[in-house]
Amino acid sequence: MPKYSLIESKLRRYLYLGHEYCIYVPPSIRTSFWKENHHDDVTGVRIIGKIVKKNKTEEINSIVPIILKIKKEDKLLDDRLLIFALAVCARFNLEPCVKMVADAYAAVSTICTDGLKLLMFVKFIKIADNILFDQGFITIMSNGHGRGFAKSMTNWYLKRDPLLTTEHIVRNKCYDGWSHKDVMKLIHLHSTEPCRIMYIVYTLSGIEKVEKLFGSKMKDVCIEDIDETFENKQLKFIYNFLKQVENIKKMDEHALRYEIELNRWGKEPEVIPQKMLKSSTILTSLVMHLPLEKLLENTFFFAKNRLFNNSTPDVGLWEYILRFNNSILLKTSQIHPIEPFIQYAKYARTCMNILKLQNNIMKKEEEKSVIESIDNKLKVIVKLQKTPDKEEVNDVNQNQPSNFYMTKPVPKLVDQLMTFLSEDLVKKTCEVLDPLGLRIMITYDSRICMKASMCACSRLIKVHEAITLIILSLIYPEKLDNKPTVYGLNSDINSSKEIEIDYNQPLTFSSLESILFKEPGCIGSDSVDSDKKDIPQVYPHMSFKWAKENNKEFDVFVFLGNNKMNLRLFKRSMKGYQTHFKNPVKIILLCLNGKHYDQINLGRRNTLFIIGFDKNVGKLINSFIKDDF
What we know:
Helix content: 40-55%
Oligomer: single chain
Structural class: alpha/beta
Number of strands: 11
Shape: globular
């Protein structure tokens, strides 16, 4: 078990969770969930600012090395907060921070590994300046970006491989109001090397200026000529790349498909024109070349553009499914079983939401104001043929509208895709999970009312589905002699019990769901009416009591439920259990439907508290168990 310093522990929690304590709220709902003081950008400034305020040089100078260490581990789910923390370190204009600032700017080339991340750093610089000043950590607001900033940007553009730099500039042109053109102008970027001049000119002035300066010279350069200089060959590579990017805009779909397959543009589809992304031919080519995690993430995009329901649906559908057959690639992609199910819900249930919206519209169709407010994506305007002048027009015809509105049909769902996402791919991703090898007890709210409770953030996922997915991902990879103990809570304390799972039978999402949540009328099912306004609470601390009474020693306790968990005796019971077995335990507590009245006391020491549910939850549970933060 790694031992981290207090500063490193604080930074790790922030970079993994976006909070100063072990509390995770999905990024998409953080700003609405927390008050501004707990937004992740303010939190990051406060954590680093408090370290600086102690005025201990050694501690201040340890911050950037810790950031670099975590980057090198390559375990973060994304680098956004890592880049923001680096930007914060770079903007302190205090005397004790001189080395930290220099280290931060020097680390830009290591942390910002592509053009998008560089632009994120540039954007975060200004945000960090404002928050540092507002929070009182600096007393003088910087007028400009400074020499350190200009030097770090210059190094990023001029000290990396020229062709790789060109590709990063082209593939990630802008971020939140900033572009590479803006940055180059800001720092007055220039170079004497022709290959670097080429991509600088392209960024600032476009391909026409490149043609004017280099076009005639490039005609005489042959890459295959062994007598040609390396510099000229490198220049020709960059020139050809830029020409290819520009030519993509003029290609028809067959030529573009060939380019995608030849140059592997599918790995970075940002350069492909938007109009081409509606072609089933181009979409199928992208399906064949996108990285698996990006392919899965864009499932709804492909479905929305009718890839799975066009004139030849089998081609796109089966190319999509076959991409996930390679278990080695699937393991490398690190896709968690939660992720395909979320894509299934987004695909299958968004259509149901559209249908509900249309039904609501039809109920109010007589209200003109409602008709006018219908989204154009949901309606079709049908114009009526005018009555010829020679025909007598009666009063009824005079009152007829010249057109009327019809709602568009709901998108047709593909059964094979839904089955693949909700069952097959969930199972495939379970099969490549690594066992944790620890003694785990999972306690969950087993009442049927969980089927009526929706998860915060992933509003298309029900609480009982999230519980099933988390339990499945924890028990599936473990060896038979070390399967986690599963304990179901009910309204009646005396009916809470250990759940028996027959591991001789195939373990799937559907089979496990039927075991964990028995329908009313089944033996041992809970009879709580989900329509009741006041649903009784359950008591997670009872699992500590059960484990202690049955002499069951565990390393990790996982608690799954909603805000009907009563946690008043939780800490006392946990301490009693640890004292009894003389063994510290890790606690993971999930309130899947949102805020919990006792959340202010959670997320300390050995406890991870998760609010809501998104694709990151499963990976964060594993990272916490493995002591990554």
